Amino acid sequence: MRTTEHWFPGRLTEMPAGECRDLMGSTSVGRVAFVDEDGPVVLPVNYVLDGDTVLFRTSPANTIARHLDSATVAFEVDEFDDYTQSGWSVVVRGTASFVPADELASDERSLPFPWADGVRTLVVRVTPFSVSGRRLLPG
Amino acid sequence: MRTTEHWFPGRLTEMPAGECRDLMGSTSVGRVAFVDEDGPVVLPVNYVLDGDTVLFRTSPANTIARHLDSATVAFEVDEFDDYTQSGWSVVVRGTASFVPADELASDERSLPFPWADGVRTLVVRVTPFSVSGRRLLPG
Question: ipTM of this predicted complex?
Answer without folding.
Answer: 0.88
